[in-house]
């Protein structure tokens, strides 16, 4: 058993991460400003991680072997742009700095596929499809700019000492209650994203079950000692959140993808998670075809 501190432990991804880590035999310390950390956590501790002193205090108090940093303003444009950027970047810096200074062995920082830049008001086209970790990043709003900054912060601290750090870019996270019809972080349901390609197309039809993302984060945290510092991994489902092949659907809803989408035949998603499979042995287990509740029309 090792002690793992999870920030954002009451969030839609954090809850699954806490449960998965505990099931794997780790002692979990959940850190969140709001209630909702699962009971599997040994401790649920409130803290304002934008405050440097509180970030140092909570890590010094619990002395975790690993830190999973998920806490963030998670929805673009849900707060003023300056607030989103300040909060997300300050928390990432404080957690990384405190972890390295206090001798934490490994840190996983949550980033986002939005760093790629899709949805830009002036138009966007990929360099290639499917997108992997080598694809150029093109941030255009405070949220995805803050995630690029979080990745660069992680990489800078990876050079600063013996702490091993990595980042994960989880696709559109869907926890179990949202398969059953609860609203997603965008306010509509999973079924509505399938029924209306204009909704799913905003994020290139990407998604991941929160439990699959938690599995990847757990495996990554355990593998950090054997990995080079500063690695970045996409975490996505093995298929697209769409009823039609993206080769047909993507050009209809995202102008500019026409020259690139032909490779996305069958159920192939726009984002590739093969790096996580190659380096970590991780593969997603869940699909909307099996998880969406009361669904009979999907083969």
| DSSP strand content | 5-15%
Give me the side-by-side strand order of the main sheet: 3-2-1-4-5-6-9
Helical segment tally?
11
Please give the radius of gyration in angstroms.
Answer: 18 Å
Distance between the termini: 41 Å
Number of strands: 9
Order of helices and strands: EHEEHEHEHEEHHHEHEHHH
Largest sheet: 7 strands, parallel
The pLDDT mean sits at 96
The helicity comes to: 25-40%
Q: What would the principal axes of the Cα set say about the shape?
A: globular
Coarse structural class:
alpha/beta
Explain what the structure shows:
- The radius of gyration is 18 Å and the shape is globular.
- It has 299 residues and is an alpha/beta fold.
- The protein is built from eleven helices and nine strands.
- The longest helix is centred in the first third of the chain and has 21 residues, at 81-101.
- Residues 295-299 have low confidence and may be disordered.
């Amino acid at each position: 058993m090792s002690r793992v501190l999870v920030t954002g432990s009451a969030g839609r991804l954090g809850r699954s991460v806490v449960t998965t880590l505990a099931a794997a035999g780790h002692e979990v310390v959940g850190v969140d400003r709001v209630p909702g950390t699962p009971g599997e956590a040994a401790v649920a501790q409130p803290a304002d991680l934008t405050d440097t002193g509180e970030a140092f205090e909570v890590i010094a108090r619990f002395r975790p072997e690993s830190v999973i940093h998920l806490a963030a303003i998670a929805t673009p444009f849900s707060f003023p742009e300056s607030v989103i950027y300040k909060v997300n970047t300050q928390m990432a810096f404080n957690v990384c700095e405190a972890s390295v200074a206090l001798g934490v062995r490994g840190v996983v920082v949550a980033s986002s596929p939005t760093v790629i830049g899709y949805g830009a008001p002036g138009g966007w086209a990929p360099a290639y499809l499917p997108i992997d970790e080598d694809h150029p990043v093109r941030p255009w709003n405070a949220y995805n700019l803050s995630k690029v900054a979080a990745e660069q912060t992680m990489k800078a601290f990876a050079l600063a000492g013996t702490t091993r750090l990595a980042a994960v870019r989880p696709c559109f996270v869907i926890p179990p209650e949202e398969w059953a019809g609860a609203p997603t972080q965008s306010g509509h349901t999973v079924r509505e994203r399938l029924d209306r390609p204009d909704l799913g197309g905003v994020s290139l039809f990407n998604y991941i079950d929160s439990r699959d993302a938690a599995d990847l984060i757990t495996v990554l945290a355990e593998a950090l000692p054997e990995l080079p510092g500063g690695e970045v991994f996409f975490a996505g489902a093995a298929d697209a959140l769409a009823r039609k092949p993206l080769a047909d659907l993507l050009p209809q809803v995202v102008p500019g993808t026409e020259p690139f989408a032909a490779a996305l035949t069958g159920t192939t998603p726009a984002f590739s998670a093969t790096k996580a499979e190659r380096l970590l042995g991780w593969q997603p287990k869940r699909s909307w075809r099996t998880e969406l509740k009361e669904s009979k029309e999907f083969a």
